[in-house]
Amino acid sequence: MVSTIKDIDERAFIAQLSSIFGRGNRELSVPAGDDDCAVLEFGGEYLVVTTDMLHQKTDFPDTMTPWQIGWMAAAVNFSDIAAMGGQPLGLLAAVGYPQNMSLEDAGEIARGMRDCAEFCETSVIGGDVDSHEELTITGTALGRVSKEELLTRKGAKPGDLVCVTGTLGGAGAALEAYLKNMDVDYDFMKPLLEPVPRIAEGRMLAKSGAVTSAMDTSDGLALSLYDLASVNEVGFVLREELLPVDRRVSEIASSEKEALEMALYSGGDFELLVTVSKDMFEALQAESYLTVVGEIVDIDAGISLVGKDGANFAINRKGYLHIGTSDQI
Amino acid sequence: MVSTIKDIDERAFIAQLSSIFGRGNRELSVPAGDDDCAVLEFGGEYLVVTTDMLHQKTDFPDTMTPWQIGWMAAAVNFSDIAAMGGQPLGLLAAVGYPQNMSLEDAGEIARGMRDCAEFCETSVIGGDVDSHEELTITGTALGRVSKEELLTRKGAKPGDLVCVTGTLGGAGAALEAYLKNMDVDYDFMKPLLEPVPRIAEGRMLAKSGAVTSAMDTSDGLALSLYDLASVNEVGFVLREELLPVDRRVSEIASSEKEALEMALYSGGDFELLVTVSKDMFEALQAESYLTVVGEIVDIDAGISLVGKDGANFAINRKGYLHIGTSDQI
Lengths: 329, 329
Prior knowledge:
The structure is a homodimer. Chain A is an alpha+beta fold.
């Protein structure tokens, strides 16, 4: 019986919460819980805002430096702003510090946040300090975007091209190396420990007018596809040969199958997944940061992958979930 | 030596963080860390935004119901919006749930947040769910306020009247009753467990044009006076006979001295402390929710109280601090 937090699927739980919170706020332009950010109409444009709670045990591997912890806490939030096409306006950071944390480490966390905010052309504008047994950081990022440029999860239709920024599975490969105590260098671990919010890419995509839907891939490509499929009532066909698998995945995976699984199902990449109208794609073709990985099909076709050998595989609904025990990797 | 979180004074630590974060954001209208909210210029008005992290051990007495926990997590944030004169636009809630929390309790927390947001004429517009050993909730509230109406901590000057909303020490008295396991009724505990954000009062004060500075009293009246004194380089003289001491304080305190201490130094009241130009006070005199408690004086006079017997006492810098061990009550 589903009666406690550990028994429930994260997305089902969010749906329950949404039904309690209601959708009655007249300022709200996208229903609560439906997208990477909440969207408020404000002064003729949209304000996009998002919050993410991270904590030591789950989110900060023990090799992570305090600076990286700060960077990460900022980056996960700016990634959501990027997914809406937003220009960042600022970051709030509520931090619960363990009593015995050194002020030097606390300062390094702050510098990590500041540096990530600066990378996103903004700054830390406020926050809260608290003491907490386990280091816990909740970031809140704000952004602005004009009404015409807002990117949302809703709008994808059969025939659209499916594209991603960057590479797939880099963070998953780094996590694997960490869990297996492998001897890898700083650069290998970077996608996991210092994810880069795709703000510049998000802004370019927003301005292009070619994007029909967008979200980030923080919980893995597969879960993101399932989210877009559910919102838009569509299916997906991806092509294995098109996937920009991160070179770390190839280095670490013991088989091609394992490499493919890592590219599809591992979380932490913080890339953008976007769908693009075919007839508008020309406007984006010069954009080297974008890779076409497949196409949208009818909902009945489900979510599948055409392998290098031409065979068709179903992509499963699994990836990284923050609560619930089902399907976690 | 001050080298860890537990050794440092909260306000000194915030000052250190502010110096790391810098003050370079051109959209920012009030420097980071200087007020109850961050203030961003947006579409010709101000966006005010604030975040607060609460967790089981420190913030949720074990008699608190899940509904009250949700209400509290929302209320502390809306109180900061009230202190800036803002009209609430929405609440984001990031919640780290213990794995064994029942879905019923999780739902009650959500209903508490929703009800508090509705009381503040807005709604929960988004958030994040996470699992956490200790129940941890970080709320983020947003509000809007016109440029002329923004209330800030800066602006108080000698001669201004010092006023508070509501009563003083009610939450402190309830905390005392809780800690001493006293047999008190639901209503007695209400100020501690269901604080009321002074949104309507904040809006009226903002529109009056009479307020020279404002903040909330969440860490106690004394600490709030010290904060305003420091920002404005002024002193305060309060009059004991004017203090609207909560009736719970009189019921529970063992002496008049203890009652006065509770009114001055206990936290959790979430009332507004405002200073008002004497020549503008007429505009506010019809407002029964406001009590004049004293007057602003020169910085050299310090922060003091004239007792009922006419003697002058120094008000100390103590109250509720979230980190650091000095001066906590």
